Amino acid sequence: MPKGVFQVPPAKNEPVLSYAPGTPERSELKKQLKAYRSVEMDIPMIIGGEEIRTGKKVSIHPPHEIKHCLGHYHQGDEAHVHQAIDAALKARSKWAEMSWEHRASIFLKAADLLAGPYRQKINAATMLGQSKTAFQAEIDSACEFADFLRFNVQYMTQIYSDQPTSAKDIWNRLEYRPLEGFVFALTPFNFTSIAGNLPSAPAIMGNVVVWKPSKTAVYSAHIIMEIFREAGLPDGVINLIFASGPVVAREVFDHPDFAGFHFTGSTEVFQSIWKTIGENIHRYKTYPRIVGETGGKDFIIAHKSCNAQEVATAIVRGAFEYQGQKCSAASRAYMPASRWEEINKEVQSQLAELKMGPPENFSNFMNAVIDEPSFDKLESVIKEAEQHPEAKIIAGGGCDKSVGFFIEPTIIQTTNPHYRTMEEELFGPVLTIYVYDDLKYDETLDVLDKSSIYGLTGAVFAKDRYVIEKTAKRLVNAAGNFYINDKPTGAVVGQQPFGGARGSGTNDKAGSLLNMMRWVSPRTIKENFVPPKDFKYPFMAEE
User: Fold this and answer.
1) How far apart are CA 100 and CA 117, in angstroms?
2) Which pairs from 4-9 meet CB under 8 Å and 24+ separation?
3) What are the tens digits of pLDDT across the range 130-151?
4) What is the set of active-site residues?
5) Residue 110's CB: how many other CB atoms inside 10 A?
6) Backbone torsions φ then ψ of 18, nearest 5 degrees
7) Neighbour order of strands in the sheet with 71-74
8) % of residues, the chain, pLDDT over 90
């Protein structure tokens, strides 16, 4: 694409609405929540533009109110996965040939629909289906999702405009082709924006997609697909399926036209799928692109020069917003002995004001964890800490699933920096703190760096700039997103491209040009305007 031709509007971050008392958005959201609660939604798969209902219905319940039914989705099987792949491949040629500006128009329209008439629909669906507060839903399902769509379109135009130089009588150009086959998107429950970005990012670059959302996020996935279809996405470009993981895996990873995998989820699942792809590599027409963001054991380390109140706030927000179910959530912290009493006092003060309950009550800071297996795992870890000689519960610890899957914001203090909850990912509102000797800061950095397989996010709090620089350098591989005097959560598209390495994924940086480059296969085209007509070169002439 030549520079200066058909420039799209510069991408800007969607403004976050406050939902404060008296604001119109608060009233609109409450109306939408009431509307969704009053009906049971019937959710089909969308394959080749057709609504597929199997009659094998699975009920959907809010994690915070397990007796209430939001609706049902229709479970698919091997035949439906195969049908989705066929539909994608059928749509591939026409979609790949569509002019980029028309693909751009579809997703820019989707962003405006999302930020406008669908804003409270997507927020309410996320709040009810995934148990998020109004603010957490707003920054995720409305704002970040719209940002992904707008910025990814901008990155597409940047990629297309990156062209090689040409010599005299020669024109060189790069053609950015979509992958030869289909892309499989496997998306998580914790961010509606990720569920929308993983299938749409490859589609923006001209690819066709088979999309399987988490079974605990089908409710919002249905609204995402509704937005895409209203925006004019052609049939078969993105196909939404609801089938079990093993069933989908057998069909997708055995197929010769499998060309790419876009994933966010657990490290164990990602590694297992990578192994399967490797074992099947001889089946494929091309080497599949594998892009994955997985878990984290994200940290906060405070130096003695820190501001205690800032550290405490980062702990409470970083560890307990959305019940600690963010890939970036703080789950281990290293506190200087000389400042710990002051920091802990402020943490306890803030936790005393924190309320937990259903998201429809806007005064609640926390809601429920996503499902019963998650609840049971977290409860067992907390009970173990209560009895372990190297650990003690200094805040929270309460667990109750009689109404919903509620776990209090829990802080474990340990005397062992290698205690289980300092190293294993838990994905819930459980933070473990190790208090270190002020004189052993460097030694503590070494322990922090070596005690986790992950490398996603981390934060340092200090006023001493020499300490900040030393910490950033020493922990260069410990976090793909590193924060200075800020909590380790809340990456914004276009500002902090997100992703980590080590056991945390391929670090292809969602929300950046780097990720979008993974969904194209460039072709170099050289055109010679004045081709030579003799094989001889000047050096061959006789003297």
Assistant:
1) 26
2) 6/101, 6/157, 7/157, 8/101, 8/104, 8/108, 8/153, 8/154, 8/157, 9/108
3) 999 999 999 999 999 999 999 9
4) 293, 327
5) 26
6) -85, -35
7) 41-43, 71-74, 57-60
8) 98
